[in-house]
Automatic annotation (TrEMBL):
The lineage of its organism: Bacteria, Bacillati, Actinomycetota, Actinomycetes, Micrococcales. Its cofactor is Zn(2+). One of its GO terms (molecular function) is L-idonate 5-dehydrogenase [NAD(P)+] activity. This is L-idonate 5-dehydrogenase. It comes from Arthrobacter ginsengisoli. Belongs to the zinc-containing alcohol dehydrogenase family. Residues 187-307 form the Alcohol dehydrogenase-like C-terminal domain. Keywords: Metal-binding, Oxidoreductase, Zinc. Residues 23-148 form the Alcohol dehydrogenase-like N-terminal domain.
C-alpha cells in the first residue's frame, strides 16, 4: 500500500509499504482523508517535533478518517453494541496509553497527561507509533469514533484538531457570555474560534498577521478580527485569551489585553528550550496562565458539533492525492499560499 513516510530531515517520500494485518482484537480501516498538521511538517522540515526526535522511518498523520473494511473476531464482540460495522465511516482517536504508572488522583481522568502516550505519527517513543497517512491502518476498537451520517469523512478528519481546540477552550472554564481573544488563526486558532462560539462566548476577537487566516476566522465565527501588522490594536480587558500562535514575542501583547483576574490558555506549541517573553503583567494583573495539551475525548464532541452544523469547510483550503503528498506538505508549510488545512485524499 502507499504511505507518506518521513525518513529524516527534508526527506519525505510516498512509498509502498506492507499492508497491515488485522488481528483478532483489531479493526482494519481503509483511510479516505488526512489533514496535515504542523507537527507533520516539523518532522519533515527538521526531523523532530518538539522533543520527539526521528530515529527511524515514520508514517506520518494523526488527523484521519475512513471506513471499516475488516473486524477481528475479538473486536467484533466489543463493537457489537456500538453500531460500527464493516462499511461504517469512522475517525480515530490517535492516543494509546502505555506503561504502568501511579498518577495523582486529581488527574486520573486526564488521559492526555498520562506519562507515556503513544500517538499516531509520533517519534516520541521507540519504536515510533506509525501514523495514518496510508491506504490502511489497523486500530483497537476503542479508538474508533463513528462519523454522523451528515458529516463527511473529509470533515471528520478534522475532528482531531477540533478536539484540541475544544480542550483548550474548556481549560478556560465557563466562557459563556464572555469576551474571548484568539491569538493566531492557523487551523487550531480558527477551530478555537468555533469552539468558543459553541461554548457560548459573547464576543470572539481573532488576531493574526495574515489576512487570509483572518478571513477564515471570520467564516468560523469570529465577531471581530485584528491584524497588528496592519496597525490593528488588540482589544483591552478581555476575559479569556486563547494563545494559539506559539510565538513568544506575542505573549506580552496578549497578556496586556487580558483583564485583571482573567485567564490565558496556551495551546500553541512554544519553541523547545528557553524563550524570551514579557510576562510581568501575569503578576500585577493576577492572570491565570494555563497550558493545554491535546485532548481527552473532545474528538467525540467535535463530531457532535459538526453534526449540529459547525462548518469546518473554511479551513480546508487545499487538497492533494496521496501520490502528490509532498506538494501538499509544501503548501502546508508556506503560509503565503493562503493554506490553512491541506487535506490528503488517501483512498
Amino acid at each position: 500500500m502507499k504511505a507518506v513516510v518521513v525518513h529524516g530531515k527534508n526527506d519525505l517520500r510516498v512509498e509502498e509499504i506492507a499492508d497491515p494485518v488485522c488481528g483478532s482484537g483489531e479493526v482494519l480501516v481503509e483511510m479516505e482523508w488526512g489533514g496535515i498538521c504542523g507537527s507533520d511538517v516539523s518532522y519533515w522540515k527538521s526531523g523532530a517535533s518538539g522533543t520527539a526526535v526521528l530515529k527511524d522511518p515514520l508514517v506520518l498523520g494523526h488527523e484521519v478518517a475512513g471506513r471499516v473494511v475488516q473486524i477481528g473476531p475479538a473486536a467484533a464482540a466489543e463493537l457489537a453494541e456500538g453500531g460500527i460495522r464493516v462499511g461504517s465511516p469512522v475517525t480515530i482517536h490517535p492516543a494509546t496509553l502505555a506503561g504502568e504508572y501511579d498518577v495523582a488522583p486529581e488527574i486520573t481522568g486526564r488521559t492526555n497527561l498520562w506519562p507515556e502516550v503513544r500517538y499516531f505519527g509520533s517519534a516520541a517513543f521507540q519504536p515510533h507509533e506509525q501514523g495514518g497517512f496510508s491506504r490502511f491502518r489497523s486500530v483497537r476498537p476503542d479508538q474508533l469514533r463513528a462519523v454522523p451520517s451528515n458529516v463527511t469523512t473529509k470533515e471528520a478528519a478534522l475532528a482531531e484538531p477540533f478536539g484540541v481546540a475544544l480542550h483548550a477552550v474548556s481549560r478556560a472554564g465557563d466562557v459563556s457570555g464572555r469576551t474571548v481573544l484568539v491569538n493566531g488563526c492557523g487551523p487550531i486558532g480558527a477551530l478555537a474560534v468555533a469552539a468558543a462560539k459553541a461554548a457560548g462566548a459573547d464576543r470572539v476577537v481573532a488576531v493574526d498577521l495574515a489576512d487570509a487566516a483572518l478571513d477564515i476566522a471570520r467564516r468560523m465565527g469570529a465577531d471581530e478580527t485584528v491584524n497588528p501588522g496592519r496597525g490593528g490594536s488588540l482589544p483591552e480587558d478581555v476575559d479569556v485569551a486563547i494563545e494559539a500562535s506559539g510565538a513568544p514575542r506575542a505573549l506580552g501583547g496578549v497578556i496586556a489585553a487580558v483583564r485583571r483576574g482573567g485567564i490565558i490558555v496556551q495551546v500553541g506549541n512554544l519553541p523547545a528550550g528557553e524563550v524570551s517573553a514579557a510576562l510581568g503583567n501575569i503578576v500585577t494583573r493576577e492572570i491565570d496562565y494555563r497550558g493545554s495539551y491535546r485532548f481527552v475525548d473532545e474528538i467525540s464532541r467535535a463530531l457532535e458539533l459538526m453534526a449540529d452544523g459547525v462548518d469546518v469547510g473554511p479551513l480546508m483550503t487545499h487538497e492533494v492525492s496521496i501520490e502528490d503528498a509532498v506538494r501538499g506538505f509544501e503548501l502546508a508549510a508556506d503560509r503565503t499560499t493562503g493554506s490553512s488545512k491541506v487535506m490528503i485524499h488517501l483512498g
